[in-house]
Write a structure and sequence with these properties.
The protein is about 65% helix and about 0% strand. The protein is an all-alpha fold. It folds into 3 domains: about 80 residues, no CATH class; about 90 residues, no CATH class; about 110 residues, no CATH class. Helix 9 packs across helix 12. The longest helix has 25 residues. The N terminus is likely disordered.
């Protein structure tokens, strides 16, 4: 094409459409709309990778269902939004919304109001541009990576960009918002891995009652008073149990890191930046497992 515009996708586009419709029958995006979004995202891909990139190169690495959901959400399909809201993140049943909240708690520690507003603002930016002339978040997704991890990374990087901007540090360029953050050095990565392994080992040693306590506080975000009422224990008793869990955890983690040669002053930085997402990623703290534990005790989460 002499004007430099990409050629049509050809027969593979039709196969892609029918595959996505078979896999996601509730999402009813018309063929013409699908073709329009495919052309749009291919142009995004060419702009980032290579203006001479081919359709075959693009489609060979496409995550078709993730791409289809993102395109349908942009078109306002309520059923596609239902699929996205129900998407799971990490190695367990962690909902996408829970994963975003976990990142928000690391970015804005001890500021629950800002954590909630950060997540709510991000949902609105998924389909509505932050400012005139810019693309909404989903409009930047080209389908070349899994959607849920990409959204979590965009959320984290966008807020880090805002924090840097407020501190007078150069913000990340918009084109880089979905790219991974610079890696830490190998030593940091090693201690992060040891910390993660020690945390998982500590969780393995907890009984169901301790897991339920953690899940109600972290996963379901209930207050100490609400948990005490739900478990039918005095609030002071629950406070002591929580303190004991915290102390046992820190002692176990510190002992494990020291045995591996740790010489850091304390664990506060790892606990602040790593602990919550490790807990929420654990299968025993998944929504479904907590529901099973609660059913055994004849309990249900109180209505908001």
């Amino acid at each position: 094409m002499t004007d430099g515009s990409p050629p049509p996708a050809g027969p593979r586009a039709e196969l892609l459409y029918h595959f996505c419709r078979l896999q996601l029958p509730s999402v009813t995006m018309p063929p013409a709309t699908c073709a329009r979004h495919l052309q749009r995202t291919f142009e995004l891909y060419r702009a980032k990778i290579d203006p001479k990139a081919t359709w075959d190169a693009y489609l060979d690495n496409l995550y078709p269902l993730d791409w289809f959901i993102a395109a349908a959400c942009l078109d306002g399909d309520a059923r596609a939004w239902d699929v996205l809201f129900a998407a799971r993140a990490g190695r367990s049943d962690c909902l996408l919304l829970d994963a975003l909240r976990a990142r928000a708690s690391r970015l804005y520690p001890r500021d629950e109001e800002r954590q909630d507003s950060a997540v709510n603002e991000f949902w609105s930016h998924l389909f509505a541009p932050e400012r005139p002339g810019s693309l909404p978040v989903l409009g930047r997704f080209d389908g070349q990576r899994p959607l849920v991890p990409w959204l979590i990374r965009v959320f984290q990087n966008w807020h880090i960009s805002q924090l840097r901007k407020n501190a007078g540090v150069q913000a990340l360029p918009e084109d880089d918002l979905a790219l991974p953050l610079p890696a830490n050095n190998a030593a940091d990565d090693r201690w992060r891995d040891v910390f993660a392994q020690a945390t998982r080992e500590w969780l393995t040693g907890l009984d169901d009652n301790e897991i339920l306590l953690l899940g109600l506080r972290l996963r379901h975000r209930l207050s100490q008073r609400e948990v005490a009422n739900l478990l039918r224990v005095h609030e002071g008793t629950l406070s002591r149990r929580t303190d004991q869990l915290r102390e046992q955890c820190l002692e176990r983690l510190n002992r494990r890191l020291v045995s591996e040669g740790w010489t850091g002053d304390n664990l506060s930085e790892f606990v602040r930046t790593e602990m919550q997402h490790l807990l929420l990623d654990d299968p025993r703290l998944s929504v479904d497992h907590l529901a099973q534990l609660m059913a055994k005790h004849g309990m249900a989460i109180p209505a908001a």
